[in-house]
Model the fold of this input.
Amino acid sequence: MKCVDDFRLRFGKQEVVPIIIGGMGVDISTADLALEVSRLGGIGHISDAMLPTVSDRRYKTKFVSEKQKQYKLNILEADKSIVQFDLAQVAESSRLHVSKTMEAKRGDGMIFVNCMEKLTMNSPRETLRTRLNAALDAGIDGITLSAGLHLGSFELMKDNARFRDAKLGIIVSSLRALILFLRKTARLDRLPDFVVVEGPLAGGHLGFGMDWAEYDLHTIVAEIVAHLKAEHVDIPVIAAGGIFTGTDAVAFLEAGCAAVQVATRFTVAKECGIPAKVQQEYFKATEDQMEVNNTSPTGYPMRMISTSPSIGAGIRPNCEAYGYLLDANGSCAYINAYNAEVALHPDEKKISVKEKTCLCTHMRNYDCWTCGHYTYRLKDTTHRNADGTYQILSAEHIFHDYQFSVDNKIKLPAKQ
Ligand SMILES: Cc1cc2nc3c(=O)[nH]c(=O)nc-3n(C[C@H](O)[C@H](O)[C@H](O)COP(=O)(O)O)c2cc1C
Done:
């Protein structure tokens, strides 16, 4: 019976254990988690979501308060078009996070950064150009393009000295999206180095509509593997979404995938950025609390625990400080939903906005409990303590469980 360790992901001459920990913003997939995975010989991700904010917290910069001070007179305005990011600060926050992570890297694995196109930051093209190039300049091993079709993203990096040596890939949820992307990259004579195929059971935003349950990862992977083979295009395909055990992973590796990308099991690792108290909510969550809703202002459905504090909260939009989801015109669906609710209840101090959520503030504060579908199984991966809480795991334990387990077994950690 095979285990994941019988396989390797190859990039040219470099070989890694075919386990990738997916990017989880905002700072859920921390540098500590990525470093541990790289030490163990796999691929870890950091995320570039809201990096100026993350940089303030981790590296004592003052990007958020400076931006808030600059635009404070706009706080009560619905029109946020003047609220722009300072591109030099965006670049500096990427440089800090990426270079500090890469300097600390040990082992034979790799560290990639996850870049979401939907983080439009009131100037989609220029902020994305800045983020991508700053990560390359700061020495990241690779970039995973996500949350969007990224039809112009390779173009934004094409003049970078590392454009052809860094590993560049994309997350897609359909063959159609992949074909569109490949057509664009062919013009630059630069194929992606990997393609992550993410199915409907993943955490975060989904590349499906509310009919997500009608799709199945094995079917989409088979379609993409067959297409690439027929076109004689050799790009490693990486399956993601709902791969909960080593045995689940082996099934994809035997079906032609070069690796798997996993995340949910690592949300309860001590190296993960989710605060310990919230990690207990992930452990406690039940199957009927797994919810896919439309509260994200991005327009993509998002999976979260139904008790997530972000759902129905009615906080004032905080775009002067954050504003990561402002589109090219300075709008965000949450601002509209919030203003409509205020207009309906002008005398109420506290309102509830059900339709959309202020994702920047809630993700930043770990109050949007986004999760993969199998979060309700996390309680089966550890011990229950005498006080009713669950024992937090180490990333090493979870990684090795994926790497070596067979027969759908999940190894419990040593009892603390
Ligand atoms: C808490 C959480 C946050 C996530 N955030 C992001 C993100 O910011 N960007 C992204 O591309 N994918 C994100 N994902 C998706 C993961 O990177 C990964 O591809 C997917 O969840 C794998 O499926 P699994 O969680 O069932 O193992 C997130 C997943 C989780 C569980």
